[in-house]
């Protein structure tokens, strides 16, 4: 019974989310005003087939990560999120787990920044949401899966990135990321996903293991970032890190001073969109 109710709830919530509210094009013939299954799958980072099976009651026992991703994509309230976890026969993550819930108030803030490149990560620097402008600037993150969505993982395992650092900037950035991650790990010592991330990184990266064993703790700060975009070339932007303390979220905002060459390149990127993206950042 719970599976059937889960499918009905997902379809009901999907129907009420206008695609333009989620940063998706709303043109073309649509049978309903809400999200298509493939659009929900894209936003949640899961397959269309799995969304279909969940809605039709042919899939059971979705993971905590999948339910959390669906709650974000469907823009559920706190009560609705709790209800979704119950339908999936799961208990919402407790205070000992890194929070991954984007509240409606934070979502409304993001909706107002459509012309600004914005991404939201949890306290462990795992990407939760990125708006279309961020995808156009940094590369489409919807293709990232598992640990690939974590910024520390991407930086220490050599995944492609459009950010260009000097050697000194890279050393400082890596040290800051590890210090932030260690601080988060101390705040959520029972989070198994975070424990697995650290263990895997220690195995995969000597540099990470060296910094982790040094025991540094701290907070990553905002900075200026030099980005090499495949269509408009190099631009240097302010990258501000805003923290939502109550929900332990990180909001990254990329901007340029008005009237500068970087601002003009950002405007051009917003026109180009993600039509030619070939890498992942």
Automatic annotation (TrEMBL):
It comes from the Bacteria. Residues 30-81 form the HTH cro/C1-type domain. Pfam families: HTH_31, MLTR_LBD. This is Helix-turn-helix transcriptional regulator. It comes from Streptomyces doebereineriae.
